[in-house]
What we know:
With 343 residues, the protein is an alpha/beta fold. It has helices spanning 7-23, 50-59, 81-87, 91-98, 112-124, 142-153, 162-170, 174-204, 211-222, 294-312, 321-328, 331-336, and strands at residues 34-39, 66-70, 74-79, 101-106, 130-133, 157-160, 237-246, 268-277, 280-289. The strands form 2 sheets. Strands 4-3-2-1-5-6 form a 6-stranded mixed beta sheet, with helices on both faces. A 3-stranded antiparallel beta sheet has the order 7-8-9, covered by helices on one side.
Amino acid sequence: MAVQINPDTFGKRVKLLYNGWKDNRADIWDNANALAVVVGGTSDDLRYLKSISLHLWLFGYELPDTIMVFTDAALHILTSSKKAALLEPLKDALQSSAGAELQIIVRSKDQQQQQMGALLDSIRAVDGARVGTLPKEQHSGQLAEVWAQQLADSGLTTCDATAGFADLFSVKDDGEVLNAKKAAFLASKVMQSFVVEKIEDIIDKNKKVKHTKLSEMTEEVILDPPKVGIKLKAENVDIAYPPLFQSGGNYDLKLNAACDDNALHDGVILVSLGSRYQSYCANVSRTYIINPNKAQEAQYGALLAAHEAACAALKEGQPARASMEAAVKVGAVVNSASVCLGS
């Protein structure tokens, strides 16, 4: 299938970017009056980077080895000839939606230094130039490395535009909400129709199955939705992270936790899995307690009460702290479980 970028979607979203940037420049964009975003070479690792999110949001695709420089007057893009051809039809959409010119520079390895110099000159042309970047991101590849060095040596004032991009992506349009719902439906269905049944079978039949093996089996199901009766195209689906199974007293609640090679133990079992649909993610985590004692029942009940209170307080227009405050109001129950709730 030929790759195409939807000019209408691009136009709507680039307008949101320019309007949000101009209207909130001092508040969340750290007073940046230019933006520079680089995406380096491709990687097989699961990466959650705002630079890549920007590509997916604007174009529907990640464009590796690409530099984007935004100014009020223009969007400058340095990229390969094939990607340049994809971007060419977006010129009218950018002009009509944001009043900016799209200037595409076809990357030439022989002229790369000069081409990057032209990008830097476009920033210098801005009065009192202050360029917003994503300083915590690390990209691989020759283009990203050379650009980072040239920007560092340019003498330009840089600032952190991370909060601005985070705010930009925080509100989802109808299409994005639908993608997230599909991802959530897939994650929930895999947990209910595959994981729970698999755990029950292992425990009932006293089988020895490693956490890592369970993770592999669950990943295969996520990547093939028809296995749980869901009609989603496999090419639109991916895992958000490797499914995580933990039991037997060894638990790691960090986001980057990984399964060990121990066999599933029929005590307290923690399961987390995440799915992606069209690059939009959903996550579900469950705690399964096999034959719980009275203390475990009380602890679980306390956490469940706090969770329900927190969810009930998630209402439009309410500050985020309202959810935590609602959970804390069940303090007597939570304290009996010796649980500390933090923001």
